[in-house]
Every structure is written in C-alpha cells, then in structure tokens.
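dumping this here so i dont lose it
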C-alpha cells in the first residue's frame, strides 16, 4: 500500500529558520536573566559574601567571608541583638552590628531626653553596675559633663560570675540636660 502525501500547499508552514533561532535565543537569554536576578536578590539572605540583605528588624546588612555587618541599625534590631530594651525618651542615634564565626557585637549611640536622663542612668547602673566618674572620655563626650564609664572588665563579685556578655558604656550630659550614651555589647 502506498501512502500519498498531501499536496505541498496543505502542509503546515514552518517559521523560517533564522526566526526560530532568534526566538530560541531570546527565550534562553530571558531565562538566564530571570535566574540571575533571582539569585542576586536572594544571595544576601543565603550568606554569599559581599551581598546585602535586610535583617528581621529592617537593618541593612552586608555579608563578609565569616559573618556579616549591619549599618543603619533599627531600634528593634538593636533591642534584639543587645537584649537591652530602650526606655521611653531614649532614641537610637546610630548603631552598628558585627557578627562573625566567634563573636557578636552591637555598638550604639543613645540619646535620652533631659526629663528621663537620670532614670536612664539608674537603669544602666542597675543592669551593668556602678560606673566610674572621670577617666578619659571618648571624643563624642568631650563637651559633656557628668561623664561616667563602666566596662565588664571591671565587674566584680556576683556581677562578674553571672556575666555572659562583655559590655562597656560611657555616658555624659550635654548642655541641654540630655544624656548621650555610647554602649558596646558583645559576647
């Protein structure tokens, strides 16, 4: 039995070969571009060095080879990383956070309004122990009065035995009565 082919005009027409190749190339380029965009957007979350991500509280962080650093730390991230809730009247002026394979450290500048400045110092002393007046103050506190500093290195007794983190703070009062506090908390 012989099969007859339909006449040439009845066969479906194919697109010209150059057009098919061009469409195929465009589809491949689009797939590669979409994959690359997805990977670069998520690379920071996956821990790829030098890629950025946004922390849980909204801080901007960048990965390093052994951890990550965060700048423009938000109040919620500061409170979470430092385990130090900010009382009313205290604002976070600036902060940074560094985490690597072995250590975590948050450094911040806090400003407490004049009405609550003394109660904030009491809270610091209750949490971290007494501070020492005098000494060499950080440059940020050069124009401040009532400078007080404390570190975990000087902690003694029960305070030192129960300590799981290292910390230091320096605080002073400016001409308006507001308290500026520089605090570093690490593990």
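and the seq i came up w/
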């Amino acid at each position: 039995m012989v099969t007859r082919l339909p006449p040439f005009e009845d066969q479906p027409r194919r697109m010209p070969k150059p057009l098919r190749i061009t469409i195929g190339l465009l589809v491949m380029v689009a797939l590669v571009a979409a994959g690359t965009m997805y990977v670069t957007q998520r690379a920071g979350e996956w821990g790829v060095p030098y890629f950025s991500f946004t922390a849980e509280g909204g801080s901007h962080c960048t990965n390093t080879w052994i951890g990550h650093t965060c700048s423009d730390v938000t109040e919620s991230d500061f409170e979470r990383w430092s385990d130090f809730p900010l009382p009313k009247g205290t604002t976070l002026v600036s902060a940074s956070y560094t985490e690597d394979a072995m250590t975590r450290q948050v450094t911040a500048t806090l400003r407490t309004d004049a009405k609550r400045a003394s109660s904030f110092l009491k809270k610091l002393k209750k949490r971290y122990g007494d501070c020492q007046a005098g000494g060499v103050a950080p440059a940020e506190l050069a124009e401040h009065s009532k400078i007080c500093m404390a570190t975990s290195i000087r902690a003694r007794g029960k305070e030192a035995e129960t300590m799981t983190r290292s910390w230091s703070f320096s605080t002073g009062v400016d001409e308006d009565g507001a308290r500026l506090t520089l605090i570093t908390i690490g593990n």
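The chain has a mean pLDDT of 84.
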